[in-house]
């Protein structure tokens, strides 16, 4: 049975809660854009518990009000060591706005999904307030918003190239990526009495120096200077060229220290830490979380993001997919840090003791569910690797892609008598289950895993993400050819029939991605319709900092080739690409017919539309279709591709 919890089981959020613990002052005060949920899946809570485990007195100020007299920033006093600031589990701009820059109706990290409790650019807003009120107290920023904005970056929402977030926020130190290792070293040094402003050589941190100030010495690091922020502002190709270095160094085992001039300052980004060991990551998940929202929210309603993960288990971090549109590797790293089987089973048991648990785990997985325990066979090969992806364009010969440990983990979880069913809600890399693509793995082992998942861990629908059907688009995305999705569907259908499961396969796709043209979307619609799919959900590409696709979106250049790439940018282009997904909606069908016939693609008209809509009624005038003047776009549906897309 779960013990009866007291208010003191949560980290304090008020003076009263500090008094309950007998505290008069604090070592660290955390400001967060999320409501406080004491769960390892919520970054601010994890940060607080980690700092607490180092012997510090820590408090959290969740969603401080920035629209009143700012009393939330004063109420807990001055910390002995530093303020910690994070926007929360998401970039505040992604949380607040859709891909069309419309303000979202709900914030999943706020009780009842209420909006308006997280300011735009929350990390910067909170940091500026703290530096104004407490100019002599260090401010440490972290979390995904800070991590992905650690260098010159394109901000989609303001449509501007911005400098690193330290310059904008005035913060003293940035912790990028997952924070356990750098925070441990920071706290260790501060406890020894080392002055904060002299701490400059902790891995996975960034800070600003005066341009004429000497660099901190570290004989084990090499330095690499990026083009300055000002040079990036002047030339988009220069900005694009920077990103290749940034991505490669971020994914190296032994990366170089990056330097970038910003006005009169020098940005210094120290190399990453080695991937966390099993023992280290277990320690993070074994901290004394209550796994519940703070009691202060009891009368405000449920927190949607918590309700979604309250009965889920995270098994690992990181992703070696390196997808061009994804930020996971930029924040969590390319190499997989996996928990031990024992740690996972211990958490499963803790979940079963929750009072409202009904026997169903909503998810057992990670960023990509089927990467648990995967790593290089020969570590020295990984040590010298600069590739941003281990599985694109092909699966690395040094990558151990065995799915056996995952199959055994799922079976061990289901042996718990309190578990009725454990679902795999995280995304599964279907391509790694196709023997023709995953040639390193044992084909029977892949089939065993697929059958285990479909038979025991899916609730009606299996969702996978081929993302596109066009090979040039997929190549830029760092995703495999759509032919492998066809092969996976064959396996899916075979198991579905054999086991009489009656499952649905739901593919997810992205519209408006760089290199995606209208003809690609028409072909996508026709091919998926031919496969029997009627697409329900489509994600529009959202440019977020620290991805290849975003660099291309802003600059028009691929950072690895510096050749031009096509980018759909106008609202008309985006809307038209999106419409092809929904060929079955009546309001789209006349437009689809006219567009395709004008382009001489009657073959696609026949594939997409019923016979009575395939011919334009006589007497109807043809509306002219506006053609894009972007480079390489020579006709509405048959553009000339740039050379790097071949």
Distance from first to last alpha carbon = 61 Å
Rg over alpha carbons:
26 Å
| Major β-sheet strand ordering | 2-1-3-4-7-8-11-10-9
Query: What profile does the largest beta sheet have?
Result: 9 strands, mixed
Number of DSSP helical runs:
23
Low-confidence stretches: 621-636, 638-646
Class derived from helix and strand content: alpha/beta
| Strand residue percentage | 5-15%
Helix content percent band: 25-40%
Shape field = globular
The number of domains is 3
The total count of strands amounts to 20
Overall average residue pLDDT:
92
How would you summarize what this structure contains?
This protein is α/β, with parallel strands linked by helices and 646 residues long. The chain folds into three domains: 10-215 and 261-269, no CATH class; 311-511, no CATH class; 515-646, no CATH class. The radius of gyration is 26 Å and the shape is globular.
Describe the 3D structure.
The protein contains 23 helices and 20 strands. It is of the alpha/beta class and 646 residues long. The protein has three domains: 10-215 and 261-269, no CATH class; 311-511, no CATH class; 515-646, no CATH class. The chain has a nine-stranded mixed sheet with strand order 2-1-3-4-7-8-11-10-9, with helices on both faces.
Question: Key features?
Answer:
single chain, 646 residues, alpha/beta, 3 domains, nine-stranded mixed β-sheet, globular, disordered C terminus
Task: Please render the helix and strand layout as text.
Layout: H1 15-20, E1 28-32, H2 43-53, E2 58-62, E3 82-86, H3 92-96, H4 122-133, E4 139-141, H5 144-148, E5 153-155, E6 160-162, H6 165-169, E7 173-175, H7 180-191, E8 205-210, E9 223-225, H8 229-234, H9 236-250, E10 257-262, E11 265-269, H10 278-285, H11 304-309, E12 312-314, E13 316-317, H12 328-332, E14 337-338, H13 341-352, E15 360-361, E16 363-365, H14 379-383, H15 404-414, E17 421-422, H16 443-456, E18 461-467, H17 471-477, H18 483-499, E19 504-511, H19 518-530, E20 538-540, H20 548-555, H21 571-581, H22 586-598, H23 602-608
Helix pairs in contact: 9-20, 15-16, 16-18, 19-21
């Amino acid at each position: 049975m779960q013990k009866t919890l007291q208010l003191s089981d949560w980290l304090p959020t008020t003076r009263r809660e500090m008094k309950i613990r007998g505290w008069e002052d604090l070592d660290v005060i955390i400001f967060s854009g999320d409501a406080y949920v004491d769960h390892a899946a919520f970054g601010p809570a994890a940060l607080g518990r980690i700092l607490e485990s180092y012997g510090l007195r820590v408090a959290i100020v969740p969603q401080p009000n920035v629209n009143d007299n700012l009393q939330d920033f004063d109420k807990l006093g001055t910390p002995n060591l530093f303020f910690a600031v994070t926007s929360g589990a998401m970039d505040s701009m992604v949380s607040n706005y859709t891909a069309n820059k419309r303000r979202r109706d709900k914030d999943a990290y706020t009780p009842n999904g209420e909006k308006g409790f997280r300011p735009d650019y929350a990390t910067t807003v909170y940091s500026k307030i703290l530096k104004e009120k407490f100019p002599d107290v260090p401010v440490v920023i972290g979390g995904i918003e800070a991590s992905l904005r650690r260098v010159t970056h394109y901000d989609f929402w303001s449509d501007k190239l911005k400098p690193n977030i330290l310059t904008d926020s005035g913060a003293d130190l940035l912790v990028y990526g997952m924070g356990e290792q750098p925070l441990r070293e920071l706290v260790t040094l501060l406890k020894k009495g080392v002055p904060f402003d002299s701490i400059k050589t902790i891995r996975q941190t960034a800070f600003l120096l005066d341009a004429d100030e000497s660099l901190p010495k570290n004989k084990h690091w090499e330095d690499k200077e990026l083009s300055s922020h000002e040079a990036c502002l002047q030339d988009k190709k220069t900005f694009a060229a920077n990103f290749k270095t940034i991505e490669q160094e971020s994914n190296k085992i032994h990366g170089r220290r990056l330097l970038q001039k910003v006005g009169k300052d020098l940005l210094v980004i120290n190399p990453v830490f080695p991937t966390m060991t099993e023992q280290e990551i277990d320690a993070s998940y074994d901290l004394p979380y209550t796994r519940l929202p703070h009691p202060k929210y009891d009368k405000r309603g449920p927190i949607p993001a918590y309700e979604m993960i309250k009965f889920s288990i995270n098994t690992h971090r990181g992703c070696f997919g390196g997808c061009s549109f994804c930020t996971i590797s930029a924040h969590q790293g390319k190499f997989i840090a996996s928990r031990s089987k024992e740690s996972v089973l211990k958490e499963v048991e803790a979940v079963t003791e929750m009072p409202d648990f009904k026997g169903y785990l909503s998810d057992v997985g990670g960023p990509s569910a089927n990467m648990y325990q995967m790593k290089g066979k020969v570590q020295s090969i990984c040590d010298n690797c600069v590739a941003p992806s281990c599985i694109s364009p092909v699966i690395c010969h040094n990558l151990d892609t065995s799915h056996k440990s995952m199959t055994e983990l799922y079976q061990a979880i289901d042996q718990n008598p309190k578990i009725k069913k454990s679902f795999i809600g995280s995304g599964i890399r279907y391509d790694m289950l196709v023997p023709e693509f995953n040639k390193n793995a044992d084909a029977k082992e892949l089939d065993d895993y697929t059958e285990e998942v479909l038979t025991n861990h899916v609730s009606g629908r299996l969702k996978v993400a081929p993302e596109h059907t066009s090979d040039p688009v997929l190549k830029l995305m760092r995703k495999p050819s759509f032919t492998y999705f066809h092969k996976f569907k064959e396996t899916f259908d075979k198991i579905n029939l054999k086991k009489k499961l009656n499952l649905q396969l739901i593919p997810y796709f992205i519209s408006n991605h760089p290199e995606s043209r209208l003809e690609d979307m028409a072909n996508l619609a026709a091919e998926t319709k031919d496969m029997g799919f009627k697409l329900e959900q489509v994600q529009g590409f959202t440019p977020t900092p620290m991805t290849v696709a975003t660099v291309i979106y802003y600059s028009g250049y691929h950072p690895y080739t510096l050749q031009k790439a096509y980018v759909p940018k106008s609202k008309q282009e985006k809307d038209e690409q999106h419409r092809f997904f929904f060929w079955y909606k009546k309001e789209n069908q006349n437009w689809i017919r006219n567009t395709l016939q004008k382009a001489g693609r009657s073959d696609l008209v026949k594939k997409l539309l019923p016979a009575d809509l395939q011919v334009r009624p006589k007497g109807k005038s043809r509306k002219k279709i506006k053609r894009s003047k972007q480079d390489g776009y020579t006709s509405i549906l048959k553009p000339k591709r740039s050379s790097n897309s071949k």
